[in-house]
Amino acid sequence: MKKKSFTFSIVLIKSRKLSAEQDIMPEVKFYKPDDHIKWMVRKFEMIKSTQDDLQLTDNFIPRPDIAMVFHFGSLPRIIYPVDIELKPLTITVISDRPVKLSVDGKLDSFIAICNATVLSKILHLNLNIKGIKNVGISDERFTGLWEKMDEMKSNKGRIKIFSEEIQKIAGDYQFDQIDRIYFEILENSMGKSLQKITENICLTKSTLNRNFLKRTGVSMKKLIRIARVHSIFERMIGERRSDCRELFYQSNYYDQSHFIKDFRAITGFTPKHFFKVNSALCKILSGMDETNPNSVAG
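Now predict its structure.
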C-alpha cells in the first residue's frame, strides 16, 4: 500500500461540525471517551456523508478546546479569513474569532476533541503562534495511525485504534498546574474570576503566563472569555432560548453590554441576530443532538 505523505498543520479554527445550505445534511454522531482516554479526549465526533457531490459552507464558533481531525474523504477548505485547504490530519487550536469552512465532495471525518494543555504537552507542541502555520512532526506513527483508521470503517473501531495509539505515546500522563488551571477555567468560567482560579498556583506570574500561552495558544483571560461565551451559547441551545439576559447575570459579567461585546467578537454576531438568523444551524455548531441537546451517542 502506498504511503500517504503528511504535512501536519496547526490552524486557527475548530473544524468540528458542518451544516449544509441544502436539504441533505451529513450524518453527525458523538461518542463519550472511555475512562482510559478521557484524561485527554473530551468527546469524539464523526461526520460522514453518502454523497459524492456534497457542497457545504459553514461558520465555526470558537471553543475552549482543541482537536485532532482525521479527514478520510474530501478535504475541507478554509475560505475566510484566509483561503487554504486542510491536510488529511489537522490539529486545530483555540481561536477567538469565527471562520468559514467549505467542503466539496464526500465527507468522512474523525474528530477527537481534546484538552488543550494535555494534547500539546504529549505531542511537544508550542501553540503560541500567530496566523496559520504548518508544524512538522517527525513521528511516523501518525502516518501509520491514519492508514489504520482509514482501513477501519466503523466509528468505534477507529476510536479504539486512536485511543490505543495515543495511550502508547502519552504513557503514564501526570497532570500539572497548567492542566489544573485549564480544567478550572473550563469548569468554572461562569462563576469564578481569573484571580480566584489562580490563587493557589505555585508559579510566578510570568512563568504561568508563558507556559499557559505555549500550551493553549491563548492567554488565561482570553480563554475565560471564550469559555464563558461558549457555555452561554450551549445553554441557550440546550434550553431553546434566545433571551440571554438571565444567563449573563449568572456568568460573572458586570453588564449586558460587556457580554454582547464578547459574544459578537467571538461569534461574529450579536446574540439576538445570531439566534434569529441561524437557530437551526446553532444545534449543529454546538454539537447538540436536536432531540436531546445533552445526549451523546455511543
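Residues 220-238 form the longest helix (19 residues).
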